[in-house]
Design brief:
The protein has about 525 residues and is an alpha/beta fold. It has one domain: Alkaline Phosphatase, subunit A, CATH 3.40.720. Helices cover about 25% and strands about 15% of the residues. The protein is built from 11 helices and 21 strands. It has a 10-stranded mixed sheet with strand order 9-8-7-4-12-1-13-15-2-16, with helices on both faces. It has a 4-stranded antiparallel sheet with strand order 18-19-20-21, covered by helices on one side. Helix 5 packs parallel to helix 6.
Length: about 525
Amino acid sequence: MYLPQRLRKINVKIAIALGFSLMVLTFTNCSQVENQPPNIVIIYADDMGFGDLNCQNPASKIPTPNLDRLASGGMRFTDAHSSSGICSPSRFALLTGTYHWRRQHGIVGAFGKPFFKDSDITLPQLLKERGYNTACIGKWHLGWDWEFKNEPSGEVMQWGRMRKFYLAKDIDWSKPITGGPLDRGFDYYFGDGTINFPPYAWMENNTFIQVPTAVMDINNIGFDTKEGQWEFRPGPMVEGWNPYDVLPTLAKKTVAWINERDNNKPFFLYFALPSPHAPIIPNDEFDGKSQAGGYGDFMFQTDWVIGEVLKALKKKGLEENTIIIFSADNGPEKYAFDRAHRYDHFSMGNFRGLKRDVWEGGHHVPFIIKWPGHVEGGTVSDEVISQVDIMATVADITSIELPENTAPDSYNLMPLIKGESYQSPLREATVHNTYKNKWGLRQGKWLYINNSTGEETKMPESFKKLRGYSDFETKGLLFDMENDPEQHVNLYEKHPETISKMDELLQQYREESSSIRQLRSDVK
């Protein structure tokens, strides 16, 4: 279109002015992003094995495209560990930077008391004080302060014995339930608590959306699993509770919560998945998506859910200023033994043992950190790290000074993840433990276990034969993890001096209130 000279000059002036305004706006927005603390998202899987991720197990029978993509955009750790081989203790350690065994070893049972003391300082508390909006969505499994009207009045035969359990009438549902996420630093909570523990109902913040009036009939769930057993405990349930709705509901709720964020206010999201923990219940549209049976399909769905969360962050324009940390609470459940025989898929990867074990497979977990512009994409670290290290690391990133006696076992991973020079090993040593009778200590290449076995989950003889495992007769164990990560060769009798020093250090950690100290060079 032809324009008179005068109008063309006006249009040029307008274009220049608009261009300048856009430059100012762009610069201002970039400055706001640079000056704003990063959002932090922790995605925590449940009973997911190291070998379940396609990106770290070439022989995996499960596609995990979203986790693979997350790893390609960040740093993947090949030697990361949960504090425990079971879930409640690992979750406590993650949120406090404190080894679980400083508090307790076991899980929080149905209607159990909080794992926390009110004096504990948690990661969400620190971030909330820093101005973050904090949310927990999904599995809590760290206890509440329930109001009971009387002792449990229900009774059922389960696992070969009569078990007492609470009915809906035994609990006071009229008051908010204290002691949970809202009392530990979270502004918001949505979840069902623990998928296989009562009450089977949705809780939002500290009240139930619908009060349970029915009871979970463990002998007639009303649905079939796709693999394994239901693992449900008896107890109160809302009418029409459908376990297959749990994972999809949590996915939708998490995406909706992200979409509601104010881009100018930092947030911390702890998305605690209930999967691929049993019951193994992938929705029908995911059936056959893997070559590893029902569990493989459930893993594929779990990966899909993670992809939906990542997609929501990107669509909202939050991806570039968000740190994403992905890990799992412990190794895979006992069904992994049969899965290996039936599908040639090894959820534990090349590691020995499963959930509950001090064997490597019990606590050697997937771990990925993505932070655009700060962590180089596609990098892999073989450094030994622990989930307790998240607390000190996030505190450094957000310029939070940790209060005295807080996060006593947490090392700052910042030099490692930013590719800066640091003294290796970063951690002096790392404690492996589930129950109070077995302890392991990893220091450098050495792993010491103060027992003749690291086993708690009974390994079938058929699986021992398949992997070439043998039992040991020495009163303790010593493995060279650089050359023998599968824990075949016990070197206990060949290095008594190393064992003596490591056992002494383990006792010091247990007796003292912190395991953070200057690196030692006496065990190499």
